[in-house]
Structure of Sulfite oxidase-like oxidoreductase:
Amino acid sequence: MSITDVTHLHQEFGGERLPPGQRETSKFPVLSKGSTPDWNSETWEFSVTGAVENELTFSWDEFRDLPSETQKQDFHCVTGWSKFDCAFTGVTFPTLAELAGVEDDAVHVMFSALDDYTTNLPLSDCMRDEVLFAWEFDGDSLPREHGGPLRVLTPHKYAYKGAKWVNRVEFLTELKRGYWEKRGYSNTANPWNEERYS
């Protein structure tokens, strides 16, 4: 199995691999806004809606049949820890965007999850191959406490931008704020600029 290494992306942002204010850990702490939601592989659905030419709905099997890849990424939590060299497998954001056909007036994206969590990012920050809808971590199914069956990975942002238990992507024509953004967290969340709060 080939792995695409994207751990060098910090160079694009002019910073060290470990962003300022972060400490490296070999553990993978669990942080969520609430409890871990239940899910059923027979009834689970993933939808793509909003400013697109083709709104999409996938079953679990259909989503897993989409073109996928494995990437080695770094993971930065806004609470101050970073985990290096995480191997995640899934579908890239641009793959989904191409299938949906993004309208010209789309400027922002809202991710929604099974636990009603939401988070937003500018479309330009999503249209990167490192933004991954992942169902595997280090060769095994993504643990439920880490967002399984499916979570978003945003290695160029703090991890609250990577929704756990994601089941919907909406392309927006204007900015809307997600769960933590409404509570004062940064819309842009660049770790190398320490954009933790608005």
Notes: The helical segments are 60-64, 93-100, 123-126. The CA atoms of residues 90 and 134 lie 4 Å apart.
